[in-house]
Amino acid sequence: MATIRSLGDLVSPLGGTINVANVIMQLALPGVGQGVVDSTVDSGRADLHPVKRARTTGAYLAVAAFGNDDDRAYVREAVRRIHSQVTSAPGAPVAYSANSPVLQLWVAVCLLTYFVDQYELLHGPLSEDEFRRVLRDGASLGTTLNVRPESWPTTREEYDELWRAGVDSISMNDDVRTYLTHLAELSFLEVRLGRLGRVIHRVFGRSFEFVTRGALPPEFRDVMHYEWTLADQRRFDRYLSNLRTMHRWTPWVWRLPWQAYLLDMRLRRRLGIPVF
Questions:
Q1: CA-to-CA dists, residue 13 to 40, 123, 256, angstroms
Q2: Among positive and negative, which fits the CA dihedral 228, 107, 62, 186?
Q3: DSSP 31-93
Q4: Could you write out the three-class secondary structure of 56-70?
Q5: What is the chain's pLDDT, residue by residue, as a tens digit (276 residues)?
Q6: Cα–Cα distance measured from residue 69 to residue 63, given in angstroms and rounded to the nearest whole number
């Protein structure tokens, strides 16, 4: 594989099947998980508007990885405005604000992990120089999410420290776990897609949930009450081997969906069609 120089160089065919695993990582921090489950901003919920949520999340990641400063400024303000509506009620068991710098930083660190996992699960660890370049380029994942630039890690040691601190703080109640289980099984698609959603759930749900379990670090499997056996690991390794071969023959293909998300976002802005 070519030398990794930027966030966009990490995208691979694995990205489309480990996205819910990364959502689980994000929502395992109680303030993030409870904020999503309790949110009254229905237009942004994956279970109620799955197509829109996929488009807007794709647009955000595409802007962070491939966009320019104008794209990022636009998305940053849109995210800040939407997140300002997501706050916990007084006296709630779990206090949260979607614009909390602490919660935003955890989400951004998880998103960086999403890109890194796409590459490292297939091809092994990045070199120190490659990780440093990705970390520097990946700062846009945080700043587009309103994370202050000075809060973003500048070394692998700082990133690892943030990651360990986050993992040490994860926990999950049944409401959040049930929400995430429906995402991992694809059964959430039945809410809005009806019969089509049921077909997708029954045909692909079990395999998608398996890959989700495989992509999770053990600490996150534990809070989801997932089991994982040696036989599961061997099956997951075979899956990764197949995707590794695919990626080596078609490395350029996997940027195209992200470029499409970016183009869609820019066209919507130009035509005055809502993006978020």
A1: 33, 12, 11
A2: positive
A3: HHHHHHHH---GGG-TTT-HHHHHHHHHHHHHHHHH--HHHHHHHHHHHHHHHTT-BPPTT-S
A4: HHHHHHHHHHHCCHH
A5: 678 989 999 999 999 999 999 999 999 999 999 988 887 766 667 777 788 888 989 999 999 999 999 999 999 898 888 888 778 777 777 777 778 889 999 999 999 999 999 999 999 999 999 999 999 999 999 998 888 999 999 999 999 999 999 999 999 999 999 999 999 999 988 888 889 989 998 999 999 999 999 999 999 999 999 999 999 999 999 999 999 999 999 988 999 999 999 999 999 999 999 888
A6: 9
Six token digits for residue 233: 């690991």
State the Cα–Cα distance between residues 258 and 60, nearest whole angstrom.
10
Alpha-helical segments (H) within 169-251: 174-185, 190-215, 218-224, 230-249
β partners of residue 97:
87
115-to-20, 127, 177 alpha-carbon distances in Å: 13, 15, 24
Distant-in-sequence, close-in-space partners of 13: CB < 8 Å, separation ≥ 6: 243, 246, 247, 250, 253, 254
Q: Alpha-carbon distance 62 to 255, whole Å?
A: 9
Q: What is the pTM (predicted TM-score) of this model?
A: 0.93
Query: Rounded to an integer, what distance in angstroms lies between the CA atom of residue 105 and that of residue 77?
Result: 17
Distance CA 72, CA 18 (A): 24
Q: Which helix (H) or strand (E) holds 260?
A: helix 256-271
